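For the sake of transparency, this paper describes our internal protein records without simplification. Because each token names a local backbone shape, the row as a whole describes the fold. One such record is reproduced below, unchanged from the form in which we store it.
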Amino acid sequence: MIAGRPRASDSQLLKRHRYLFVCINRRADDNPKGCCAAKGSEDVYKVLKAELAARGLAKLDARVCTSSCLDQCATGVTVLVEPDHFFYGHVTVADVPEIVEGIASGQRVERLVLTADDLAKS
């Protein structure tokens, strides 16, 4: 109980199936690692959020959140999908409809999923 209010039961809580964390980290232009923001991550975030809402998927299926560095600079724009615990990499605005369709169908967009080799580069 918090401040005299009863605690909501688990069945009453709004739980989303997935959370998509979009790295919007920004570094100096001369940083050798680069950054997702310079590769268009802020636009990816905005379009992904809008597309999920337009398809009615934002309430229960997925929530799009911004994130600072996800340590995948070599593969940016990077999106971490939880609780599935995988990364999409090299994401562009053009990829958003396919990602949203994947959320709707419960399927990953395999061509965007980072491999163990990709993850080792960062």
